[in-house]
Design brief:
alpha/beta; binds zinc ion; 30% helix; 348 residues; six-stranded parallel beta sheet; Quinone Oxidoreductase, Chain A, domain 1; single chain
């Protein structure tokens, strides 16, 4: 059997064509993919030599769908069930997992059980993934598109919870992409007093306002460090999150935070690149610097629940729903800042 998929043949070479449909694992299931989000990391992978020559490859990890087939040894799920596949899988037995930080799971085999292959009509889910978990049922009255936001929301949800964003924080977010917008929305829900958004794209900054951003700074036109200082009476913000793939914003962020404040490096920067930091400033100003990646199972579940909550404005985040055939257009729309979140439909 054949299925439609978006295959990556090399950097910027993505072709939607027919390919072999995966076989149903004896102990697993076949999920018919009903919607898949286009993530910033997908775009980074699709436009760089992310597989080091090993092509073709199918990306896509914000996967939702319904069970189409089940293997004879699989008893947990049944045909027709609507599921969200969290791409993280954790063992729940190693030291990191049992201390409540499954995002740092040390069991590499388990961590690689799920994660990619969503830009297609079907995906096989193996028995081990089902056993270790991270698969959540989507209620009947929730759209597939809204449920797909569960994945991109997860890491943001975990980050803001870990650094305890709340009242009366002044929070600076650098990067008004979909992740920055999710950050603003969740920071608002958590009670941040003031949210300042920085980006180089005016269109994105204007769109960010609808998610609870109080002040926007276009760093192409204004010195963002000066601007943040001015807005905070010369003190700097309580917390600053660098949510871009750029080393320069990491370097800037420590100049925007107050003495004793917290800086988070959320966005991944080009592989192997180094960021030059004013370490004396970090030292004398008692600045905390924290990295963030992923989320624990517990946080992923609660982030998913937030994504599917009635009052969560998923419609405002999903600006474009496109057929999978238009994946290249989706990448362009996201890159230019025209789209916030693009969700692809493999069956349109
Ligand atoms: Zn994602
Ligand atoms: Zn573990």
């Amino acid at each position: 059997m054949q299925m439609k998929a978006a295959l990556m043949y090399g950097p910027n070479d993505i072709r939607v064509e027919m390919t072999e449909k995966p076989a149903c694992p004896e102990d697993g299931l076949i999920l018919k993919i009903m919607a898949v989000g286009l993530c910033g990391s997908d775009i980074r992978n699709l436009t760089s030599d992310s597989r080091k020559g090993k092509y073709p490859f199918i990306y896509g990890h914000e996967i939702v769908g319904c069970v189409d087939e089940t293997g004879p040894l699989q008893t947990k799920y049944h045909k027709g069930q609507r599921l969200f596949l969290f791409p993280g899988t954790y063992c729940m037995e190693c030291d990191a997992c049992i201390t409540g930080h499954s995002e740092n799971c040390e069991n590499e085999h388990v961590a690689k059980l799920a994660g990619t292959g969503g830009f297609a009509q079907y995906i096989a889910v193996g028995g081990e993934k089902i056993h270790y978990g991270g698969i959540y049922e989507i209620p009947e009255d929730v759209s597939y598109e809204a449920a797909s936001l569960g994945e991109p929301l997860t890491s943001v949800f975990a980050c803001l919870e870990n650094i305890k964003v709340g009242y009366p924080d002044t929070l600076v977010i650098i990067g008004a992409g979909p992740i920055g917008d999710f950050m603003a929305q969740i920071a608002r829900i958590r009670g941040a007093q003031r949210i300042i958004m920085i980006d180089i794209n005016q269109k994105r900054l204007e769109m960010a306002k609808q998610f609870g951003v109080d002040e926007i700074i276009n760093s192409q036109e204004t010195d963002p460090i000066e601007a943040v200082k001015k807005l905070t009476g010369g003190k700097g913000a309580d917390k600053v999150i660098s949510a871009t793939p750029v080393n320069a914003t990491q370097a800037q962020s420590i100049h925007m935070v107050r003495k004793g404040g917290l800086v988070v490096f959320f966005g991944g920067v080009p592989k192997g690149s180094l960021t030059e930091l004013d370490c004396n400033l970090i030292h004398y100003n008692n600045i905390w610097i924290k990295g963030h990646f992923g989320a624990s199972y517990d946080q992923s579940k609660r982030a998913f629940q937030l994504a599917i909550a009635k009052n969560f404005p998923s419609d405002k985040f999903i600006t474009h729903i496109l057929p999978l055939d238009q994946i290249n257009e989706g990448i362009q729309l996201t890159r230019t800042g025209e789209a916030i979140k693009v969700v692809l439909h493999p069956w349109d």
